[in-house]
Design a protein that fits this description.
The complex is a heterodimer. By secondary structure, chain A is α+β, with helices and mostly antiparallel strands. Chain A has 2 domains: 53 residues, no CATH class; 176 residues, no CATH class. In chain A, 51% of the residues lie in helices and 16% in strands. Chain A is built from 9 helices and 6 strands. In chain A, the strands form 2 sheets. Chain A has a 4-stranded antiparallel β-sheet, sandwiched between helices. Chain B folds into 2 domains: 100 residues, Rna Polymerase Sigma Factor, Chain: A (Orthogonal Bundle), CATH 1.10.1740.10; 61 residues, Winged helix-like DNA-binding domain superfamily/Winged helix DNA-binding domain (Arc Repressor Mutant, subunit A), CATH 1.10.10. Classes of the chains: A alpha+beta, B mainly alpha.
Chain lengths: 241, 162
C-alpha cells in the first residue's frame, strides 16, 4: 500500500486517524522508502523546533511587557462590563498562575521603559509619565510615593506603599502595589523613576503574588535592609535623600 | 487586567511566531509591538471565552502581510526608512549585511508568504490543521497543499539532514 505525501505529512503532524496511523506504521516496517520519507519529515519538524523554540524561552524585551503593564494601569476605570469580563477571565487564569511564574515574569519586566508613545503621557490621572525616555511616577502614584508612609496608610489612596529602602545605587526606593499596577520607584532628582513595573490585580491573591514578586526585586536592589517606620519618616522629612 | 496578563503570558510564543515570519529578531519585536498596540486598541473585539492566542496570531499575521505588501509597493521608490521596512523580507541585502543568517532562517525566508505562514503555524507553533486553516481563513485542503509544498521546498533547501 502506498501513501501520498499529504498523508505522510499528516501522519508526522499527528493529524491522521487511528486506522491510517496503524496502516502507515505497518507499511513502514516493510517499506524502507516510506520509512525514510517519514524520518525526513520528522527531522524537518525537529530542526524547525530546535531553531525557533529557544526564542520562546528568551526574556521578553521590556518595551513589549511595558506596553501591557502601562495598558493595565490605564484601564482602572474600564466599564462595568469590561471589569466583569476581566473577573471571568481572572477566575480562569488564577488557577494556572502561581507565585513562581509571577516571580519569573517580574524578572523580565520593565526597566526605564518608554510609555509616552502609548498615549498615557498627557492624562492627568495616569500613574506614569515619560521624562527623557524614562518612566516616572505621576499624578496619584507620585503623590503616594512622595507623601504616604507605610506605617500610616489609610484606604483613601489607590496605592499601598510597601518597602522603603536605600538601593545599592544610593537612591531611596519605594515599592507600591495597587489594583492595576505594582512596582518600585526610585527617587532621582525630584522624581520617582520606575525601576520595575508589573501588573497588579483585582483579587487579593493576585495582589499577594504581585507584591511578593515586587519584594523579590526590591531585595535585589537593596543596599542593606528596608527602612523601619522611624527611618521612613525621617527620610520623608529630608526629601527622600 | 486579566486581558493584559493573558497577553503577557502569550508574548514568548508570539515572539517566536513573529520571528519565524520575519526572521530578524528586531523586526519580529517590532511586529509584536504593532500587534500588541492593535490588540489593546481593539480589545473590545475579542470575546472572552474564545481563544486569545488564535486572535492574537491572526492580528500579528495580518500586520505582517500588510507590511510586506506595503513594502513591496514601495520597493522601487527610494530607500524608505520607516521603522517597519525591514519586516518586509525583501530587503535581503540589508539583512545579510546585518547578521549571519541561519540556514533555517534563510530557507524560511525563501518560502512564499502563504507557505511560510502555514509552516510556521503548524510546524513551529503546533496548531492543528483545523485551527491553522481557521486562523488563516482558508479551507483545510488549501492549508495542507501549502504545507506539502512548503515542506518540500524546506527539505530541498536544508538538504538530506533536514
Amino acid at each position: 500500500m502506498s501513501f501520498d505525501e499529504a498523508t505522510i505529512m499528516a501522519y508526522v503532524d499527528g493529524e491522521c486517524d487511528a486506522v491510517t496511523v496503524k496502516r502507515i506504521e505497518k507499511a513502514m516496517t516493510a517499506d524502507p522508502v516510506l520509512a525514510k520519507q517519514i524520518e525526513q519529515a520528522q527531522a524537518l519538524r525537529n530542526r524547525l523546533s530546535a531553531h525557533y523554540d529557544p526564542i520562546a524561552e528568551e526574556a521578553v524585551p521590556d518595551r513589549l511587557t511595558a506596553m501591557l503593564t502601562a495598558a493595565a494601569s490605564s484601564n482602572i476605570d474600564s466599564s462595568f462590563t469590561a471589569r466583569k469580563a476581566d473577573r471571568e477571565i481572572g477566575k480562569r487564569q488564577r488557577r494556572g498562575m502561581g507565585i513562581a511564574q509571577w516571580g519569573a515574569m517580574a524578572a523580565t519586566l520593565a526597566l526605564g521603559v518608554v510609555i509616552g508613545q502609548f498615549g498615557l503621557g498627557g492624562d492627568a490621572g495616569a500613574p506614569f509619565a515619560q521624562t527623557d525616555g524614562a518612566l516616572v511616577a505621576s499624578g496619584p502614584l507620585a503623590d503616594a510615593l512622595e507623601t504616604q508612609l507605610a506605617s500610616a496608610q489609610t484606604d483613601n489612596s489607590d496605592y499601598r506603599i510597601g518597602l522603603t529602602f536605600r538601593a545599592k545605587t544610593g537612591n531611596i526606593c519605594r515599592s507600591f502595589t495597587s489594583e492595576a499596577v505594582s512596582g518600585i520607584g526610585c527617587r532621582e532628582g525630584q522624581q520617582w523613576k520606575m525601576v520595575s513595573t508589573l501588573p497588579g490585580g483585582n483579587a487579593s491573591d493576585y495582589r499577594q503574588a504581585s507584591s511578593s514578586a515586587v519584594n523579590e526585586i526590591a531585595a535585589d536592589l537593596m543596599a542593606d535592609a528596608p527602612a523601619d517606620a522611624e527611618t521612613e519618616r525621617k527620610l520623608m522629612e529630608s526629601g527622600w535623600k | 487586567m486579566a486581558f493584559e496578563q493573558d497577553l503577557l503570558e502569550l508574548l514568548p510564543r508570539l515572539r517566536r511566531f513573529a520571528r519565524s515570519l520575519t526572521r530578524d529578531i528586531n523586526d519580529a519585536d517590532d511586529l509584536c509591538q504593532m500587534a500588541l498596540e492593535r490588540a489593546l486598541n481593539k480589545r473590545d473585539q475579542w470575546q472572552a471565552g474564545t481563544r486569545l492566542d488564535s486572535w492574537m496570531y491572526r492580528i500579528t499575521r495580518n500586520i505582517w502581510i500588510d507590511t510586506v505588501r506595503a513594502a513591496g509597493r514601495h520597493k522601487h521608490v527610494a530607500n524608505d526608512d520607516s521603522a517597519m521596512e525591514n519586516i518586509a523580507g525583501d530587503d535581503h541585502k540589508r539583512m545579510e549585511s546585518r547578521m549571519e543568517l541561519n540556514d533555517v532562517d534563510r530557507a524560511m525566508d525563501r518560502l512564499p508568504m502563504e507557505q511560510r505562514e502555514a509552516v510556521s503555524l503548524v510546524l513551529v507553533e503546533g496548531f492543528a490543521y483545523k485551527e491553522a486553516a481557521a486562523l488563516l481563513d482558508i479551507p483545510i485542503g488549501t492549508l495542507t497543499s501549502r504545507l506539502v509544498r512548503g515542506r518540500e521546498a524546506l527539505q530541498r533547501e536544508l538538504g538530506e539532514a533536514a
